[in-house]
Amino acid sequence: MLLALSAPVSLRLPAPEAHQGAASDGAYVYAVDNDRIGKYRIADGRRVAQWQGERRLFPHMNSCTVAGRELVCAASNYPAVPQTSAVEFFDTRTLRHVRTVSLGFGPGSLTAMDRHGGKWWAVFANYAGRGGEPGRDTRHTLLVRMDDAFRQEQAWTFPAEVLERFAPFSCSGLSWSRDGRLYATGHDRPEMYELALPEAGSQLELRRIVGIASAGQAIDWDPKVPGRLWSIDRAKEEMVASAVPAG
């Protein structure tokens, strides 16, 4: 096991919406729940905007990322089956819901989104239990690179060692760092996985495992503070900033 040093916590911000993940634009951090989002100023922890959706329309938003002036979120109908997914867009200034891109049926349940290298990177999760479909389990979890129209260009599977640590759930978070490294988190382990695209084949390569204070869920790198990773402590309803050691 390629276990690195644990990442110490540098900041905690209380947020009742911190149940699925966190995203940041450097000045603000966004706490994500299934059907609600809170916008918090990092400097003083004050909530400056909030959005609440209808649960029937937003049963499961899992992770978000900031792209330009929009907060882009991965959403699905989890735990319902057959699995359907959508990408939800919000105005970062007001948190007004702007639009939806429906993906319909796919290779799993959309749990994570990020923007990197002019492409969209999405994780379609599969589960061994609740929310899973017959014939597919955690091993079928897929990383997909998409164009601006959310059409699949390439896809990769996860390494066996990572899948074992995901099971019986799946990948809940994915974020590219400023130096171009890919990181993923599972559902309930206090660790994240540095991955790399393979030179050949279809399986991602595991580079190292980093211990973090959060027990899984969605993550996002701070675009302004080098090495700062945002995650959540669901039990304490907090957003957590950790200082991740360089690899």
TrEMBL record:
Q: Which SUPFAM superfamilies match?
A: 3-carboxy-cis,cis-mucoante lactonizing enzyme
- Name of the protein this chain belongs to: WD40 repeat domain-containing protein
Originating species: Sphingobium amiense
